[in-house]
Design a protein that fits this description.
The protein starts with a strand and ends with a helix. Strand 4 (83-86), helix 3 (89-99) and strand 5 form a beta-alpha-beta unit. The chain has two domains: 3-162 and 349-365, Rossmann fold; 166-347, Rossmann fold (3-Layer(aba) Sandwich). It is globular. The longest helix has 18 residues, at 330-347. By secondary structure, the protein is α/β, with parallel strands linked by helices. Helix 2 (67-79) crosses helix 3 (89-99), helix 6 crosses helix 9 and helix 7 (201-214) crosses helix 12. It contains 14 helices and 13 strands. 41% of the residues lie in helices and 16% in strands. The protein has a seven-stranded parallel sheet, with helices on both faces. Strands 10-9-8-11-12-13 form a six-stranded parallel sheet, sandwiched between helices.
């Protein structure tokens, strides 16, 4: 089977991590002929080059460069894939909508990676509608996402993100991580997400300030890049800056999450609802209790009160309270840790994700 994956760029987000995990899993199942086609030459995960995937860049020269459509068509004709998968709505799905009638191959739309409804009568909405009409199968990583995107039920399939258990063997030691971070407190709380308007770092920062006002035994980490870093830094006084650290994009995010006492994911539900967050999956796989805002696919991963806590959005006092509860109870952390690891092994393993994709490929190519 020859597979073409269409994605705008390979940035440092969860969608790209999920795509990379799938490629690695397919390689392990002898699917080697994989082509990744991108518009922008941005690859934040160099492990992509360790797979068998061949990378094609069809750069767009300016906003109105329609030649990119021709270049995409030419590239796909040269590759001659059995299956095309699109991972982004705009721009790749938009371009493919125009040329798909001239291509004879199966088409999987894998654009349902979040659970935020698309605004009606926009370019996004029109592209979504056409893409779903053209697609043989629509894959989402959460039931909440399939519902939010109004995907036709008969064409739709949910395949949850999968965690590669082999990653557990590649982590830095917790002592090494703490040494690398110059950690001076016994506890560390981490939020790994892009620092933009879609993620609610405001609630995280406000909760951190509340906790720091009560105790000085915990350091809060913000892991990710984004345009709002300076804005959030400006809200911290000199004392608080000792306990709230901005790390930017990190290649060792797995090891940092593993070393964390608590993992947090706050989402701005007014602008964005999560599909299935890789940060949550990874934290749970490492046995780290997660506190996350309700909405989207998050409710499909975390069992509230058993594997972590689900809290209302925009409630820093509630978040601070849950963090303190976990920091104060080693037995609760241990209890949630074991249940979280078990849930990932049983429901969100990479083997299960790849198995579901392999079944899908076999079905549509029969």
């Amino acid at each position: 089977m020859r597979l073409a994956i269409l994605i705008d760029f390979f940035g440092g987000g969860g969608k790209e991590r999920r795509c990379l995990q799938l490629i690695k899993g397919l390689n392990c199942n002898n699917i080697k002929d994989i082509h990744v086609i991108m518009i922008d030459n941005i690859i934040d995960y160099p492990d992509l080059y360790k797979t068998t995937a061949k990378v094609h860049i069809i750069e767009r020269h300016g906003k109105y460069d329609l030649g990119v459509i021709k270049r995409l068509y030419k590239t796909l004709k040269q590759i001659n894939p059995d299956v095309i998968m699109t991972w982004t709505l705009i721009k790749m799905s938009f371009y493919l909508c125009i040329i798909k009638p001239f291509l004879k191959c199966k088409y999987i739309s894998a654009i349902v990676t979040a659970a935020q409804p698309i605004k009606k009568y926009t370019i996004d909405d029109i592209t979504r509608f056409i893409a779903f009409k053209q697609a043989d199968v629509i894959v989402g990583n959460s039931y909440a996402g399939i519902k939010a995107y109004k995907a036709p039920i008969k064409k739709s399939l949910v395949i949850y993100n999968g965690f590669d258990m082999e990653r557990l063997n590649k982590l830095k030691s917790i002592d090494q991580v703490k040494n690398d971070l110059s950690l001076k407190t016994p506890f560390m709380v981490s939020m790994a997400a892009r620092i933009n308007r879609h993620k609610d770092y405001q609630t995280y920062i406000d909760a951190a300030k509340k906790v720091i006002a009560q105790r000085k035994d915990v350091t809060f980490y913000c892991i990710g890049k984004g345009e709002l870093i300076d804005y959030y830094k400006s809200q911290l006084n000199a004392e608080e800056q000792k306990y709230v650290m901005f790390l930017g994009f990190r290649k060792d995010v797995d090891s940092i999450l593993n070393a964390s006492t608590v993992s947090v994911l706050c989402t701005n539900n007014k602008l964005h609802k999560e599909g299935v967050s890789n940060t949550i999956l990874e934290s749970m796989a490492y046995g780290v209790p997660v506190v996350a805002t309700t909405g989207g696919g998050t409710d499909e991963i975390i069992l509230d009160g058993e594997t972590g806590f689900i809290i209302p959005p925009f409630e820093p006092s509630v978040l601070a309270s849950k963090i303190n509860t976990l920091l104060d109870s080693e037995s609760l952390r241990r209890q949630m840790s074991e249940k979280a690891k078990e849930r990932i092994r049983n429901n969100f393993s990479l083997d299960l994700m790849v198995e579901n994709y392999m079944s899908l490929f076999n079905r549509i190519l029969c």
